[in-house]
Design brief:
The chain is mainly α. It has one domain. It is elongated and about 60 Å long.
Length: 75
């Protein structure tokens, strides 16, 4: 009875395409934010991993950015 319902086929091909689109929508801005703060852009990929994404968010919010450090050194 449960073998022919819609929940038995949840991994359809569009699912993977949708996941890729969502990942790109989230990762690209995260990479740009990391680059603009002076950190390597690859750190933006960490936004995809649960719990690590929260650590990245707090790190970027409270750490001293290399860009600010360089700006203070030039003044």
């Amino acid at each position: 009875m449960m073998g022919d319902n819609m929940f038995g086929h949840t991994m359809w091909a569009g699912h993977w395409l949708w996941m890729l689109v969502v990942a790109l929508v989230v990762v690209i801005p995260a990479c740009r934010i990391c680059q603009r703060t002076g950190y390597p852009g690859w750190m933006g990929v960490l936004i995809l991993f649960p719990v690590i994404n929260l650590i990245l968010l707090y790190f970027l919010a409270f750490a001293e950015w290399p860009v600010e450090r360089d700006r203070e050194g030039r003044s």
